[in-house]
Amino acid sequence: MRNRNTPSSWQDESAYWRNTFSSRPYTVDAPDYSLWEPAYRYGYESANRDGERTWQDSEPELSRGWNSYPHRGSFSWDQVKHAVRDAWDRVTGHHPVGTR
């Protein structure tokens, strides 16, 4: 989890997720980081923009926005929402990854 007073870069976050994504249960059927990177990036960018809001308040908007996200890849919202949430939680510190 990052310190909200010391923002991390996307490169730092990407390195974190590249090293840890395979431990997440939703990646079992797609064990290639490049498939998940867009979801983590979307969560990272969204949390940096709207992280003062709760996930519950933000999720409907994030769901709608996923289809127009330029880096989204081929996964649907239902396939990526847990990865997006993991990145959101890591950035905001609301629920550190792995504690839900």
Description:
The chain is an all-alpha fold and 100 residues long. Helix content is 57%, strand content 0%. The protein is built from four helices and no strands. The protein has helices spanning 10-20, 33-50, 55-66, 77-92. α1 (10-20) crosses α2 (33-50). It is globular and about 30 Å long.
Describe what is shown at a glance.
The chain has 100 residues and is mostly helical. The chain has helices at 10-20, 33-50, 55-66, 77-92.
If you average the pLDDT, what whole number results? Answer: 89
| H/E element order | HHHH
In the predicted model, the low-confidence regions spanning at least 5 consecutive residues are none
Gyration radius (Cα, Å) is: 12 Å
Give the termini distance in whole angstroms. Answer: 14 Å
> Percent of residues in beta strands?
under 5%
DSSP strand count: 0
Q: Class by helix and strand content?
A: mainly alpha
The largest pleated sheet is described as: none
Please tell me what the overall shape is: globular
Helical residue percent band? 55-70%
The total count of helices amounts to 4
Give the SSE layout:
Layout: H1 10-20, H2 33-50, H3 55-66, H4 77-92
Helix pairs in contact: 1-2, 2-4, 3-4
List key phrases describing it.
globular; mainly alpha; 100 residues; 57% helix
